[in-house]
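Aim 2 progress update. The chain analyzed this quarter is reproduced below.
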Amino acid sequence: MPTRMYLPWVTGISALLLGAMSWSGCGGIVRTDAAHHPTPNSVPALDITTSTLPNATAGGNYQAQLQATGGTIPYQWAVTSGQLPAGIGLTAGSGLLSGTTTQPGSETFQVTASDASHPAQQASQTLTLNISAPASPAPSLDPYGGLADVTLPVTATGYFQVQKIGTRWVFVDPDGHPYWMLGVFAVYLGTDTSAGASATLAKYGGSEATWGLQAVRRLQAWGFNSTAEYSSAYV
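Predicted structure tokens:
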């Protein structure tokens, strides 16, 4: 008959950890404590990793994805303090902020993520969304560089002129529009013997006229409407 043997010198906490040991007929020692049944790993703490938001522009479409780690997916998102800017919404199931902003300004609000654990974990983050005003559109220019959208109480003469309107003198272009000169001084290639001039001419096939046409296009794209003295005749 197998006999059961206890170790009398193992007492207290040690006995509790080791448990009872049985002496079997095979001569082996079999552990009967709960160490053979480890407890599952605990769920990592839920944390919102999004700490800042990209800026928005009033009147433009906006999207920003909120991110979180830990916990048990899926997450549910909600605004729990403050309010979102007008035109922006939060998708609860994905954490996506999206919409079309309506006006410049700044809104600070708190978002909270809840996970699928039982009981659910929650994490919160305070965020600020800044909305800037849209950039002013470039003015519409007539063929002479005048402000085509502005009407003056003058008659177009076909040449540049100066007219007094109220208490101000205004430079008027041939089409009768106000001409606000925004020019660049000394736009030219340089001396014929300069390394820069030679390299630039080579780039444009040795033609200063071809270079001048491209220079004009670039200046216009940058918002200039004229060139000042000491500029090349090709611009």
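Helices lie at 12-18, 195-203, 208-221. The chain has three helices and 15 strands. These observations will guide the mutagenesis experiments scheduled for the next reporting period.
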